[in-house]
Design brief:
Layout lengths: L8 H18 L4 H7 L5 E2 H8 L4 H13 L3 E6 L5 E6 L7 H34 L1
Length: about 130
């Protein structure tokens, strides 16, 4: 285990505020999948929607707008007929790469733990039934 850290209320409040800010920007079911999906390069709205499968157009529009407001996504409008609109990641969006990597690693570890725990529970139940 890690060493116990001594905290003061100012540092704790600053830490909580920083975490709130991060969660405000990245929270929800779709923000991180959108960022990961746009890593391949610019995509049109319908391409993004097809890639994320279950997202509704209304929610996708809202999420893209929020990511744009927080400097993660650039919306480009091209003067074509019909008008073409693409969305792409900003260089700033790469700052969440370590967070995404850590979440991916932790998520895989957590899933393995839960699956193993359920296997163990099932084995114990089967042993009790046989006895």
């Amino acid at each position: 285990m890690s060493e116990m850290m001594i905290h003061n209320s100012t540092e704790c409040n600053a830490a909580v505020n920083s975490i709130r800010d991060a969660l405000y920007v990245l929270s929800g079911k779709w923000k991180l999948p959108l960022i990961v999906g746009l890593r391949e390069g610019p995509k049109r709205f319908n391409e993004i929607q097809r890639a994320l499968v279950d997202i509704t157009p209304k929610v996708l529009s809202k999420e893209l707008r929020e990511l744009e407001l927080n400097d993660f996504v650039i919306r480009r409008v091209y003067d074509t007929v019909p008008v073409t609109v693409t969305y792409e990641l900003t260089p700033y969006s790469a700052t969440v790469d370590p967070i995404i990597a850590a979440l991916r690693e932790w998520g895989a570890q957590h899933r393995n733990r839960i699956v193993e725990s359920r296997r163990t529970e099932q084995s114990e139940i089967e042993v009790k039934v046989i006895d």
